[in-house]
TrEMBL record:
UniProt gene name: LOC107888854
Domain Phosphoribulokinase/uridine kinase: residue ranges: 47-233
The protein's name in its UniProt record: Uridine kinase
Gene3D superfamilies to which the protein is assigned, alphabetical: 3.40.50.2020, P-loop containing nucleotide triphosphate hydrolases
Upper classification of the organism: Eukaryota, Viridiplantae, Streptophyta, Embryophyta, Tracheophyta
Sample GO molecular function, one term: GTP binding
Reaction catalysed by this enzyme: uridine + ATP = UMP + ADP + H(+); cytidine + ATP = CMP + ADP + H(+)
Annotated EC: 2.7.1.48
NCBIfam families, per database record: PRK00129.1 (NF001097), PRK05480.1 (NF004018), udk (TIGR00235)
Residue ranges crossing the lipid bilayer per the database entry: none
Any single Gene Ontology cellular-component annotation: cytoplasm
Pathway named in the protein's UniProt entry: Pyrimidine metabolism; UMP biosynthesis via salvage pathway; UMP from uridine: step 1/1; Pyrimidine metabolism; CTP biosynthesis via salvage pathway; CTP from cytidine: step 1/3
Record bears the keyword tRNA processing: no
Record keywords: Allosteric enzyme, ATP-binding, Glycosyltransferase, GTP-binding, Kinase, Multifunctional enzyme, Nucleotide-binding, Transferase
Length: 466
């Protein structure tokens, strides 16, 4: 475990956000060990690219994002830091040098820097002296791995390799006259240049480069912000999206059909109770039922709805939605039966089928029983199993449903905890199916048990673990 994970700040940071646990593929002990290494690796940071014309307000936008993400570790990497230092001949003709051309930047070093940060390593970013037009030879800026990396510069969208490292691309769009006025003020005050040289450089290099390189890269942006830092609404929406993405488990980014219900202290507390090996059976069942109800309600939210109008007791019209009528549940015996009461409590009179998978070794599962509604092919199916481990039993149950005519996209798999191996196993084979879970655990161990897990759920729930 990294040294930083021992700190109180790290523990509190992890506890305050959405909580996830892990997973592992049932191939061999060696592959299981390698997966443990992956599971404990640093989570991938969220990389944001911010581009736009010179003096468009890129830095202001970045500062506002950083301020609003104060509860996350955020680093800013400026493309300007990666200007190539001018040699003696270039310095003699500095007024003829185009600082707004892609060749003015050391893109290879920029790539290396961002790739290291994404992998969790610290880097030393060069410091560029805009008055001397050279890099400082004996000083660097130390940048540590963080939750969010903001890469800012006029040409950060120009190179496809750099764009591919970004999770979000923002283009700051500001009127040309405003940008020119800001450029004059900045270069005269901060960079020691006179007004005539700034205007000459703008006409000769800056504006042509904007038209040739910067403006065409606007098409790669996911979000365009008019008026830059003055557009508070756009920045608030961007920060909200970033917070959502930071709250997602890495597997939810890989598989958009995997949904983890939003974690709260109530949910964390209930997980703490049912995972405790010393909890009484009564409390285990009580808190498991509460969690299962939340998962079921969340799963129902993914069903199709139709608009419906009703007349209220005040003789007013209320426009709402009508529930999906063609629905059934299917429990994977025996643990899945523990989720049936919650489903019945949410869906009055719902039909529930059953599938029994015989466990004869981890890879030798064999279907020995199924009892399903005759019209199941016409229904949306909520598949019930509280623990998704290797995914082998789930895959066999899903395959049976598909053979019965249920479209893959009509299946929603509900469980309390999932192992990453199981998610990989199911989602790769059935990419259109949805998985709804309350937590993703760390991994499977060599015995294919979910870690940290909650033991044999069926035995604990039905009281047959003695």
């Amino acid at each position: 475990m990294p040294e930083e994970t021992n700190s109180i700040d790290y523990i509190m940071e992890k506890a305050s956000g959405p909580h996830f646990s892990g997973l592992r593929s049932p191939t061999s002990a060696s592959s299981s060990s390698s997966f443990f290494a992956d599971a404990n690796a640093p989570r991938q940071p969220f990389v944001i690219g911010v581009s736009g014309g010179t003096a468009s307000g890129k830095t202001t936008v970045c500062d506002m994002i950083i301020q609003q993400l104060h509860d996350h570790r955020v680093v800013l990497v400026n493309q300007d830091s990666f200007y190539r230092g001018l040699n003696t001949e270039e310095l003699k003709r500095v007024h003829e040098y185009n600082f707004d051309h892609p060749d003015a930047f050391d893109t290879e070093q920029l790539l290396e820097c961002v790739e290291k940060l994404k992998s969790g390593q610290s880097v030393q970013v060069p410091i560029y002296d805009f008055k001397q037009h050279r890099r400082s030879s004996d000083s660097f800026r130390q940048v540590n791995a963080s939750d969010v990396i903001i890469l800012e510069g006029i040409l950060v969208f120009h190179d496809q390799r750099v764009r591919n490292l970004m999770n979000m691309k923002i283009f700051v769009d500001t009127d040309a006259d405003v940008r020119l006025a800001r450029r004059i003020r900045r270069d005269t005050v901060e960079r020691g240049r006179d007004v005539n040289s700034v205007l000459e450089q703008y006409a000769k290099f800056v504006k042509p480069a904007f038209d040739d390189f910067v403006l065409p890269s606007k098409k790669y942006a996911d979000v365009i912000i008019p008026r830059g830092g003055d557009n508070h609404v756009a920045i608030d929406l961007i920060v909200q999206h970033i917070r959502t993405k930071l709250g997602e488990h890495d597997l939810c980014k890989i598989y958009p059909n995997v949904y983890v219900i939003q974690s709260t202290f109530q949910i964390r507390g209930m997980h703490t109770l049912i995972r405790d090996r010393d909890i009484s059976k009564h409390d285990f069942v009580f808190y498991s039922d509460r969690l299962i109800r939340l998962v079921v309600e969340h799963g129902l939210g993914h069903l199709p709805f139709t608009e419906k109008q009703v007349i209220t007791p005040t003789a007013s019209i209320y426009t709402g939605v009508d529930f999906c009528k063609k629905l059934c549940g299917v429990s994977i015996i025996r643990s899945g039966e523990s989720m049936e009461n919650a489903l019945r409590a949410c869906c009055k009179g719902i039909k529930i089928g059953k599938i029994l998978i015989h466990r004869d070794g981890d890879d030798g599962k064999q279907l020995i029983y199924e009892k399903l509604p005759k019209d199941i092919s016409e229904r949306h199916v909520l598949l019930l199993d509280p623990v998704l481990g290797t995914g082998n039993s789930a895959n066999q149950a899903i395959e049976l449903l598909i053979q019965k005519g249920v479209p893959e996209s009509h299946i929603i798999f509900l469980n309390l905890i999932s192992a990453p191996e199981g998610i990989h196993c199911v989602c790769k084979r059935f990419p259109s199916l949805k998985i709804v879970t309350s937590e993703i655990d760390v991994a499977l161990n060599e015995e294919f048990r979910v870690i940290p897990g909650m033991g044999e759920f069926g035995d604990r729930y039905f009281g047959t673990d003695d």
